[in-house]
Amino acid sequence: MFSIVPELIFIVYGLFILLGIYALYLLIKLLIRGIEALDIHLDEKRNKKL
After folding, report:
1. pTM score, two decimals?
2. Burial 9-31 (b: 16+ CB within 10 A, else e)
3. DSSP class per residue in 1-50
């Protein structure tokens, strides 16, 4: 007799992998925005002093 439990575990494992990849994508996107915002902030700060 075959059991459904290993197949469910495999599906859940795959979903966790996809969720991890999506979280990594969102983190990279957030870091890029943060770097751009920091660059804009530093540029404005330097131009005010000059």
Report:
1. 0.71
2. eeeeeeeeeeeeeeeeeeeeeee
3. ---SHHHHHHHHHHHHHHHHHHHHHHHHHHHHHHHHHHHHHHHHHHHHH-
How many Å apart are CA 38 and CA 45, to the nearest integer? Answer: 10
User: Residues 18-42: pLDDT tens digits?
Assistant: 999 999 999 999 999 999 999 999 9
Return the closest-CA partner of residue 33 out of 20, 25, 22.
Answer: 25
Residue 2 has pLDDT above 80, yes or no: no
